[in-house]
Inverse folding.
């Protein structure tokens, strides 16, 4: 026995209005109707009056154009795929809504639509090509950079099936890559802190192979080396799972509290530079809960300039990365590649902008930082 849903679907398909239905109602040839509804794709001539009548009748009959027919005729789907890691995976979701909006804005100007392909990028293997690459479902893809190993697998997919593509936030300078200058972002923020007089700057980083995080840490180390200062860093716990959110009320994981306070005691930093604004928010909360004043006792800065960063207490010094423009430029680059599939593009990296707010100041001199209140440490 067929399910009611399948029966309803088949009934809907049978009742779908076709060009022949419109032609029959108007007593015209289906070629004339097709020419009016698909101008530029037919050699049949139709007068403006007849074309207007056909379009009016099609609208009144709720006619919908057949995408399948257009694909066969034009060899185009007019749809772009954005490939990113499945958001249920246990690591940071890298696709930002502003990037998606920028990409959609670009594609809409070219009458292209966007679909988001959430995939197990981390688990991709060369011999298992995703179905959406093997079949003509998209005219091209924007691939969100994951790691050197996984990026190589996906780029080989695209080359093998001759699909136009661009990489989002991969290594700057690479062909067909649209990215922020993460190295300069961290370097300019470190230089800001050094310029205030800080020499002991603790960098909060997290274990990942993603290019953005690697380049930010390299930028920090480069600035410290140029100033003759020793890089200081600690690993920040990042686990993006629903269970962890509910259990530990992210972003203040207990282990981050312990490790941060240990690092404060070991390194005695006068500033904390976080590789991501969300880490800076957490560090700000942890340190204030344990007796530190921001920025009187210690300065804090982050990277990204996320929404509401200026509403932190105190407002967070950060580096602004324009993710809307990142998405928009990726869309424009992909459109150029679709028009010229054999042409490789080199897109200049998007420049960061330093945003100085109240969370950073010159370090205090001649006075040690107040120790944390041990009574506030987690007990188990």
């Amino acid at each position: 026995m067929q399910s009611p849903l399948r029966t309803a679907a088949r009934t809907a398909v049978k009742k779908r209005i076709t060009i022949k239905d419109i032609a029959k109602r108007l007593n015209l040839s289906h070629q004339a109707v097709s020419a009016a509804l698909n101008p530029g794709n037919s050699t049949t001539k139709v007068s403006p009056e007849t074309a207007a009548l056909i379009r009016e009748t099609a609208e009144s009959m709720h006619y919908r154009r057949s995408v399948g027919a257009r694909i066969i005729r034009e060899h185009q789907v007019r749809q772009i795929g954005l490939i990113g890691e499945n958001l249920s995976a246990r690591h940071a979701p890298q696709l930002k809504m502003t990037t998606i909006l920028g990409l959609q804005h670009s594609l809409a100007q070219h009458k292209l639509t966007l679909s988001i392909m959430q995939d197990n990028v981390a688990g991709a293997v060369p011999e298992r090509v995703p179905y959406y690459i093997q079949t003509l479902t998209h005219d091209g893809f924007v691939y969100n950079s994951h790691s050197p190993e996984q990026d190589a697998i996906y780029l080989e997919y695209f080359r093998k099936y001759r699909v136009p593509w661009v990489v989002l936030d991969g290594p700057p300078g690479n062909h067909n890559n649209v990215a922020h200058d993460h190295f300069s972002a961290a370097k300019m923020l470190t230089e800001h802190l050094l310029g205030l007089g800080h020499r002991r700057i603790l960098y909060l980083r997290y274990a990942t192979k993603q290019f953005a995080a690697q380049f930010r840490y390299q930028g920090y180390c480069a600035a410290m080396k140029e100033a003759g200062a020793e890089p200081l860093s600690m690993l920040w716990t990042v686990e993006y799972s629903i269970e962890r959110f509910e259990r530990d009320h992210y972003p203040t994981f207990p282990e981050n509290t312990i490790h941060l306070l240990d690092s404060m005691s070991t390194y005695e930093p006068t500033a904390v530079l976080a590789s991501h604004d969300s880490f800076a928010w957490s560090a700000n909360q942890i340190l204030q809960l344990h007796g530190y004043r921001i920025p009187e006792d210690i300065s804090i800065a982050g990277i990204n300039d996320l929404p509401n960063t200026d509403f932190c207490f105190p407002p967070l010094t950060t580096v602004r990365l324009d993710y809307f423009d990142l998405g928009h430029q990726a869309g424009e680059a992909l459109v150029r590649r679709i028009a010229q599939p054999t042409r490789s593009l080199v897109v200049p990296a998007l420049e960061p902008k330093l945003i100085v707010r109240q969370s950073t100041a010159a370090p205090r001199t001649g006075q040690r930082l107040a120790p944390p209140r041990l009574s506030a440490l987690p007990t188990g």
